[in-house]
Amino acid sequence: MFLTQTVPRQREIIEVVLRNGWDYMRRLLTGGKADQPQLPTPAVLKNILVDLGPVYVKLGQLLSTRPDLLSAGYIEELSTLQDEVPPVPWAEVEVVIRKQLKRPLEETFNTINHVPVAAGSIAQTHRATLADGREVALKVQRPGIDATIAQDIALIQGIADLVARTDFGQNYDIKSTAEEFTKALEAELDFTREAGFTDQLRRNLSQSRWYDPTQIVVAEINWDLTTEKLLVMEWLDGVPLLSADLSNENPQDAVAKRTAITTLLFRVFFQQLYIDGFFHADPHPGNLFYLTSGRVALLDCGMVGRLDPRTQQILTEMLLAIVDLDAQRCAQLTLQLSDSAQPVILSRLENDYDRMLRKYYNASLTDINFSQIIYEILQIARNNKIRLPSNMGLYAKTLANLEGVARTFNPEVNLFDEIKPLITDLFRQQLLGDNPVRSLLRTALDIKSLSLQSPRQIELFLDRVTSETFQWNLSLQGLDGMRRTMDDVANRLSFSILVGSLIMGAAIISSQAQTSQLSFVSNVLFAAASLLGLWLIISILRSGRLR
After folding, report:
1. Cα dihedral 425, 426, 430, 436 in deg (nearest 10)
2. Which positions fall inside the ABC1 atypical kinase-like domain (predicted)?
3. Which residues neighbour 226 within 8 Å (Cβ) at sequence distance 6 or greater?
4. Measuring CA to CA, how many Å separate 517 from each of 504, 510, 520, 531, 535?
5. What is the DSSP pairing of strand 304-306 with strand 123-130?
6. Closest to 319 (Cα-Cα) out of 395, 374, 278
7. What burial class does residue 444 get, using C-beta atoms within 10 Å of its C-beta: 0-12 exposed, 13-18 middle, 19+ buried?
8. What are phi and psi of 286, to 5 degrees?
9. Interatomic CA distance for residues 546 and 539, integer angstroms
10. What DSSP assignment string belongs to 172-199?
């Protein structure tokens, strides 16, 4: 159905692909032979996605979070995709705003800047002042974007259905990836979801034992005015973090300020990742602001990730394994993360990790790029056909963006010194919990219970061992074959003894036979012994185990 409904769009896609010089596609369409399906080069793929429009730019941004699907070159190129597009004229934006407001526009706002401060593929943002004098940011959905997205989603799902029939599509679960993308794109059309994410993030970061919560800011949502197509939130006055000018302070104060901000960012995101399990998944330079008040703000909570407690614990141990350059432990933890039932050759996986980590053996911990190692770990998993949860891509991308911003903003940052106390505290919390006294008391009670029950359990065990009611239930692999072999050996030995006894009995009777009856018995015994012996020899020869 989608093929007939989106024919013009299909023709446009083919023209864009050919215009960007994808040689494989050109050979395929002209009847040439292609060895195996291949992606265009990273730069060409990026150009294709940009030319295809906003939806495909979003697709590229999603793929940049999937190092389990694409190699490092594609991840790096697609990570640079920005959905900056020409703004929609104010007259069209005003129509959308008026439809979303319960009251007239003039009664709701004192002023609205008709020139947007930012324009993206889904929405654009304007600065405004409410009737009560508060400054706010208006994120307005682009007119007609929902219809465009619906058409492109139908086309992407149709293509995914076709690709899913190939080995490539099955190995990389292309259909699930397409469904994930379409759901994420549809969710972006509902600004109330982003508003909810923003509120949750602000609540989570409002308290911490790692940093001063007053130094991190997340915009407050105006729920009275926010709808599916209009997001109204607190205006935050500042500049992108990497554009922050600290030159008005003396050099020592500027260095101290940069160090403090870097430490704050690491601690804020480590809390999100390893404690809260809910994290801002797009901390690129444009979403990290340095406010005029000297604080740091997180903007745009449209892309978030979630980690369950088990995954958090595994990833914490993975960080420690990376620090220790422990290839075997990395392999074990990767398998624990895997949601694939396909068999894996563990020795091969360990060897791949060992080769990857070996280049870091003589490197200083301060020079190790942790996010790069995590990307390489995910790619090794992909090469070994280990399917990892999709949130691992968001996790890796978040760490990569955070590390990149930190190193650019503060080149003197010592990454190991920043994360070492956090990892130590994480392990302490996993061992003792949030309330160490309660955890210790619970452990003491468990030990007490074990100490009281152990003597009685040992007594019961000894009673059962010395009684006839004790049974061992063992399940050993290959034991059935061994048992059958032992049975065969025992049977043949029994027959051999029986044959020998018959021959000896017949010989004794024959030597002392005085009557014809005894001679008959002797002959019968000899005949029976001969038949049994012949059967035993034949069975041994047929088993092939004569030697």
Report:
1. 30
2. 81-333
3. 191, 192, 195, 232, 233
4. 18, 11, 5, 21, 27
5. unpaired
6. 374
7. exposed
8. -75, -15
9. 10
10. TTHHHHHHHHHHHHHHHT-HHHHHHHHH
Tens place of pLDDT per residue across the chain (547 aa): 444 455 565 666 666 665 665 555 555 444 444 444 456 788 888 887 877 777 777 778 777 777 667 777 787 788 777 666 788 999 999 999 999 999 999 999 999 999 999 888 889 999 999 999 999 999 999 998 888 888 778 877 777 777 677 665 666 667 777 777 787 778 888 999 999 999 999 999 999 999 999 999 999 999 999 999 999 999 999 999 999 988 776 777 888 899 999 999 999 999 999 999 999 998 888 899 999 999 999 999 988 999 999 999 999 899 888 888 899 999 999 999 887 666 788 889 999 999 998 888 877 766 777 778 888 888 898 888 888 887 888 898 888 889 889 989 998 888 778 888 888 888 777 776 666 666 566 666 667 666 666 676 676 666 666 665 555 555 555 556 666 666 666 666 766 776 667 677 666 666 665 666 666 666 776 777 777 777 767 776 666 554 5
Q: Which residue blocks in 410-515 are alpha helix, DSSP H? A: 415-432, 436-465, 479-511
Which run of H or E residues covers position 312?
A: helix 309-324
The single residue listed with the structure tokens 């495909």 is: 56
Rounded CA-CA distance 254/260 in Å is 10
Structure tokens at 522: 């002797």
Given the structure tokens 């960012």, which residue do they identify?
265
Which residue in the block uniquely carries the two structure tokens 């705003």? 97
Q: In angstroms, rounded to a whole number, what is the distance separating the alpha carbons of residues 270 and 4?
A: 49
